[in-house]
Design brief:
alpha/beta, Methyltransferase, Cobalt-precorrin-4 Transmethylase, Domain 2, five-stranded parallel β-sheet
Length: about 250
């Protein structure tokens, strides 16, 4: 079996228990070298074969699995964060299907959750936003025109933007043209949960300057929205005047 495992955002102990157990018994590990914490590889067995996918093509990755595959072996593809986000796992699954190799996915803590955690932030603050938009600026991978950030901005929802920290000038302009106020709170979270993590709180219009001042061009998430300020309404769920399945309201 090939296991696509989410390694989590960086800190070694943010991989899931299931992911760690599979890693410990893996016969082969192919890890995304640019973003997966290499310390995780210390947990593999002595005879585990380890490959860094940063220098490999899709076909080379699949070839390693094809050559190593046997029903009793544990083959691991270690992706950063959660594999379902910008992980290019579908194309790997389709090729494994062609070779009749079974696979399974072990989810991980995505970096957008890691970034919220280190900011002590809640994306879904009552009275502010109940929606999180996960997206990116267009790079070599095209973004469908209907999902252009300028259009997504019209919702003024909480946003987490991946793969975009080298394009903050156009990013900021698009979001402002689309509807966010220039002073909307924003944060740059570089290497969330890694030992060298950096957190920069800023505003939407000052994003490019803040990144330049801190020399950040990659491995960062950009968060934008009112959820980063302290203005919100308290949740109804814990309100003393609100009854629900498990608790009666405490009204006078
Ligand atoms: N599957 C991953 C995303 C892979 S795309 C996930 O769920 O997090 C790679 C992008 O993710 C990077 O360009 C950056 O925007 C973001 N990223 C990954 N790890 C990060 C981290 N620890 N801190 C901040 N951003 C991170």
């Amino acid at each position: 079996m090939v296991y696509f495992i989410g390694a989590g955002p960086g800190a070694v102990d943010l991989i899931t228990v299931r992911g760690m157990e599979l890693l410990k018994k893996a016969d082969v590990v192919i890890y995304a070298g640019s973003l997966v914490n290499p310390e995780l590889l210390q947990y593999t067995k002595g005879d585990c074969k380890i490959y860094n996918s940063a220098a490999m093509t899709l076909e080379e990755v699949i070839q390693v699995f094809v050559e190593a595959y046997s029903p009793e072996k544990t083959l691991v593809r270690l992706h950063t964060g959660d594999p379902s986000l910008y992980g290019a796992i579908k194309e790997q699954m389709d090729l494994l299907d062609e070779h009749g190799i079974p696979y399974s996915v072990v989810p991980g803590v995505s970096s957008f959750c890691g970034a919220a955690a280190v900011l002590n932030a809640e994306f879904t603050l009552p009275g502010v936003s109940q929606t999180v938009i996960l997206s990116r600026m267009e790079g070599r991978t095209p973004v469908p025109a209907e999902e252009d950030l300028e259009m997504l901005a019209s919702h003024k929802a909480s946003m987490a933007l991946f793969l975009s920290s080298a394009m903050l000038e156009p990013l900021s302009q698009k979001l402002i043209r689309g509807g966010y106020a220039p002073g909307t709170p924003a944060a740059i979270v570089y290497k969330a949960t890694w030992p060298d993590q950096k957190i920069i709180r800023t505003t939407l219009e000052a994003l490019p300057q803040s990144a330049a001042e801190n020399h950040i061009t990659k491995t960062a998430l950009i968060l934008v929205g009112g959820f980063l300020s302290s203005d919100y309404e308290r949740s109804k769920l814990y309100d003393s005047s609100f009854s629900h399945e498990f608790r009666q309201a405490k009204t006078s």
